[in-house]
Amino acid sequence: MKGAASGYASGPADPVEQMNQVEVPREHWRLFADEFTRVHQTWLVTVATVETARWGADPDAAMAGWHRLREGVQLQNVAIRETPSGVEVQVQAGGGEHVVSDGINGVVRVFRFLVDGRHRGLRIDGNMGQSMVVWFRAAAAPDELDDILDVGLIGSRYSPEEIDETH
Predict the structure, then answer these.
(1) Cβ pair 115, 19 in contact under 8 A
(2) Which 3-state string (H, E, C) describes the chain?
(3) CA distances from 55 to 16, 83, 91, 102, 129 (A)
(4) Domain range annotation of the chain
(5) What digits encode the pLDDT tens for the residues 104-122?
(6) Fewest 10 Å CB contacts: which of 23, 62, 65, 108?
């Protein structure tokens, strides 16, 4: 369901090989969220929810049941705060005047995703059986992709003939 803003769809478009989920200790959640935001702000992400029980031993099966809330939007902020009802996480994503906040309450666990040693996102488990996922479209900052754009491999500004002549 590529390009959809929301709805049920399969997980990431790229194959997930050797994904590791590393749990972040509770005492480090706030620091982790701050650092995650600092390092990954403006990265293109998909924000989704999925039933926590689906993660089990097969993350690919869980990803097949994502409910996408946002897709292909810039990550702006991940904030973790204490509330009277428990821990809440807010994920802000979008650009310009269109920044949207999605949240999950009663947070019980936080994981970071690593694929082939590169950070690919995070998973936040709530106490009501739902998890929120923030998944990077690419394990790279948008400005790291500029060279790819310049040579015309994505969203080409060159014609196919010009690409063939230069590469």
Answers:
(1) yes
(2) CCCCCCEEECCCCCCCCCEEEEECCHHHHHHHHHHHHHHHCCCEEEEEEEEHHHCCCCHHHHHCCEEEEEEEEEEEEEEEEEECCEEEEEEEECCCCCCEEEEEECEEEEEEEEECCEEEEEEEEECCCEEEEEEECCCCCHHHHHHHHHCCCCCCCCCHHHHHHHC
(3) 14, 27, 21, 21, 11
(4) 7-136, 141-167
(5) 889 999 999 888 878 889 9
(6) 23
Q: Residue 92 corresponds to which amino acid?
A: Q
- In this structure, which amino acid lies at residue 71? E
Provide φ and ψ at 31, rounded to 5°: -60, -45
